[in-house]
Here is the input.
Amino acid sequence: MNMLSNSITNHTTNHEVTPMTNLTAPQVSTPSPQVATPSIASSAMLVELSISRWTAMKLDKRASSDVTSQNYAQKGAARVNKSLLGGCAELDAIKKLTGNVRNMHYAMTMPWSDTGLRLLPTTQYFKYHQAMTEMQAEFNRMVTDFLDAYDWEISQAQATLGALFNRDEYPTRDKLISKFGFRLSYIPLPDAGDFRIDVGTEATEKLRLEYDTFYRNQLESALTDVWHRTYEALSRMSERLDWNDGKKIFRDSLVENLTDMVEMLRACNVTGDTQMTAMADQLDTALRGVTPEGLRTNESARIRTKAAVDKAIANLPSLDI
Here is the structure.
């Protein structure tokens, strides 16, 4: 059913990017200005996710005017936004899935620019692509289910909204299809100084230097993001394993999340940073044989694991947290 803008594409054209605000991490291991900027074009790519859905929300100007008038308020003081399909299970499911897709996208990639581009390590590509393709198929299935139920949902809304119901506010099925989309774009990451434009030697060198600075800043921001995630996962485990004030309940995901973080540290180490490699090795050792149930029932295992986690936190680079 060709109804969604849901293609997964590969682009080879240049993509303009703009600098983003960097996270503060003065001690994170990154190249100094005197050292050549590392090329990560062969170990990472850029990916852009575009996902859209119909919100079924509509500003009711007449109802807004009535509320304002009835309360003797100034014009424009009140806005009545109504849910055209309140309680539609199919639409709610799409909304929830959309949030999950975005969370997965952010979890498996690193920040790169304000335009929505994210850095995807090549070692993470197949896992990422498979996960997102499965999500895309589920998205398409849910949209089809919603469209099949659309006319019925409109009849239900008429009974729910009463005088607020206006049939003209509901798009036709054909127009509705265009409001749902799922698209991934993979873009090669240009090397620092990779300019092929004929603007003269001096201008080209200026652009190269400007991009070199941007490239360094974005790379530092991407790596810092990974360190922040590591700190959050470690801090969460340390807090949950601290039973000095009484036993604390935690889910199995407490261990699973940190195990995933070790994998993330290795996959996202696109510069071959020795500190990041050492941290992954340290956590690998600390988590060996550790299970959620063991932490709940074995006091010595819990104390030993917390000590290892706290030691890992102490070994993190300074993140000004």
